[in-house]
Amino acid sequence: MIRKKWNKYPYIVLFIIHFILLLFTFTKANNRKSLVVLLFSNMGIAYLFEYIVLSFLHLYRYKPEFFRKNFLDEISGAILSQAVYVPFTALFITAFKLNWIVKLGFAVYFMLIQKLFIKMGIFKERGWKTRYTLILIYLYFHISDQWLRFLEKGNSFIQKLTLYNMVQFTCINLLVALEMMHKLTFGRGYYHSLMEQHKMETSYASLMSVLKTWVTYIGNIKAKALVVVGKIVVDYILKKSRLIKIKSLIPITIVDILVISLAPLYKKWIGDAALYSDSTNK
């Protein structure tokens, strides 16, 4: 095993590689707005996967050693994996319509990275198998391709799911930002478990994202205000029940208002993706 202080560097190197891949994708592609929507949605899909596998089943553990607090450290590894490495690669493959051989090649690449990280002691399996990574990432690349096709065709169901994915992705990342600033902690009492924190944060964010997606499609100012006020009441009850630890409800309320304000913009981008497809097909 490598020394802990070096754990972060393989994660950082991968971030640089995949960030360059993302820049290349947006530099060369024409349908940038569609790709932004797809990227956010792909990240949301990846987060849903992480919700089940990491938060509830706890089948593996990231150990990048970015933070001393185990929860934040594990979350930082999950964010890099599910919001950077795999989604950035999926976007590259979809944008340039690369074939199944390339998809399989990248899936093998991620499987080999996982094996390397296990040997280095910076990723730990707890029931997970590397072959699952190979199969699921390969399927994920195909889902990304089909998702963009449905988006550009204006499929109503996929548009709604995409908005939910984008809202959920934004919500989770803003909550994690509050946790990193020591403004918020999920879990009952002081000695909450790592698994409890994962379950509470992801369940909280996912349920609230359903509400915010729904109210965005209603488009009613009164409904949005009611959601914000109702959310303050819920957060107050959670605070008193010690299910969340927060000194003031103001930061988390600001997050709610920000997400509800961004959601209509996301909805417009999703609609623009279909409009772009119509204009290019004429």
Structure characterization notes:
With 282 residues, the chain is mainly alpha-helical. The chain has one domain (4-281). The protein is built from nine helices and four strands. It has helices at 8-28, 32-56, 70-95, 100-120, 130-152, 156-180, 194-218, 221-240, 250-281, and strands at residues 60-62, 123-125, 185-186, 244-245. The protein has a two-stranded antiparallel sheet. Helix 3 (70-95) crosses helix 5 (130-152). It is globular, with a radius of gyration of 19 Å. The mean pLDDT is 89.
Chart the SSEs and their pairings:
Blueprint: H1 8-28, H2 32-56, E1 60-62, H3 70-95, H4 100-120, E2 123-125, H5 130-152, H6 156-180, E3 185-186, H7 194-218, H8 221-240, E4 244-245, H9 250-281
Antiparallel strand pairs: 1-2, 3-4
Shape call: globular
What integer is the average pLDDT? 89
Regions with little confidence, pLDDT below 50 for 5+ residues = none
CA radius of gyration is: 19 Å
* Share of β-strand residues: under 5%
How many individual domains?
1
Largest sheet properties: 2 strands, antiparallel
Helix and strand element order: HHEHHEHHEHHEH
Number of helices: 9
Structural class: mainly alpha
Please give a handful of descriptors for the protein shown.
single chain; 282 residues; mainly alpha; two-stranded antiparallel sheet; 77% helix; membrane; transmembrane; transmembrane helix
Short summary:
The chain is mainly alpha-helical and about 280 residues long.
